[in-house]
Amino acid sequence: MATRWGLCGAGKISHDFSVAMKTLPPADHQIGVIASRSLERAKDFAKKHGIPKAYGSYEELANDPDIDIVYLGVLHTEHWRVGLLFLKAGKNVLCEKPFAMNSRQVKDLVAAAKKNNVFLMEAIWSRCFPVHAEVRRLLAEEAVGEVKLVKAYFGSPQLHIPRSVEKELGGGALLDIGVYCLQFVLMVFNGERPESIQATGVLLDSGVDESVVVVMKFSRKKMAFCSFSISAQLPNDAVISGTKGSVKVLGPMHCPTTLVVNDKEMEYPLPEPCFPLNFTNSTGLRYEAEEVRQCLLKGLKESPRMPLAESVLLTEIMDEIRKQVGVVFSQDSQ
Questions:
Q1: pTM above 0.85, yes or no
Q2: Which fold, 3-125?
Q3: In the chain, where are the structural domains located?
Q4: Membrane-crossing residues (predicted)?
Q5: pLDDT, tens digit, for every residue of 160-213?
Q6: Predicted confidence band at 334 (pLDDT cuts at 50, 70, 90)?
Q7: Looking at the domain covering 130-267+308-333, what would its CATH class be?
Q8: Is the dihedral angle over the CA atoms 100, 186, 124, 83 positive or is it negative?
Q9: Distance of CA 31 to CAs 2, 23, 89, 114, Å?
């Protein structure tokens, strides 16, 4: 039986997700519904992507019995409210990153998933890429010895994009792209909580972070350094340095196709898209879709590649970074 998907939100990421789905066998994955707050947008999207049903409200999708899982591709300021709608309706959910605006909201989503006995995953698609799988394998066999330092960079000029810079839209470098650097560090250190976090950054006039540098210290003298910015292009790579060598994930580190292990380069090419994409390497969204299918087939309620406890920790770290840098959202006082 194919996994039957319902898409929530007819924006850019849902477009790319739909294009990525076309690279997977139709016997395994079907998009049955697109839901938007605008029925017209939903119908246009459905026509373009060959999706049988279009809804003009999220509630209709929540009440559709023919859907196995909802892909939540709305703005992250809406993840908490809309996510709870689906979870309380007994729907499995793959929620785009960042999971929500703060750790309190994330804990609400996790609690709702557990209470309703449904699957929930934060769509940190990076975790599902073959490059990341190979990194985990190399670390498990101690290919670089004992890991001492992890560095991750992500910078892209986005000051012209409203959702990147406006506080009401949950803007800032941290929630949009810094999350990728931090999740990479947590993946390398197996979801370990850092012993200390030191963050400094500069803010835009809107009150969101433009550029941030984070240094974290972990047990057994392990360190991590992350730098992210929405005003400048950075190398966008990640390096794991150990006592016996290094592993480098070449940019774009959040959706990588090239890995360098002790100077030996390995390629993991992506399938070509059938439509133009909005974001880099988006056909790689196929990997998280397949991860979700495998989890559902096994009856799992969360993904071992991105466990819910790790999503909570990731958001707690982001809360602390925002506190140190001085970014406050209206959701923090609700």
A1: yes
A2: Rossmann fold (3.40.50)
A3: 3-125, 130-267+308-333
A4: none
A5: 999 999 999 999 999 999 999 999 999 999 999 999 999 999 999 999 999 999
A6: confident
A7: alpha beta
A8: negative
A9: 10, 13, 19, 25
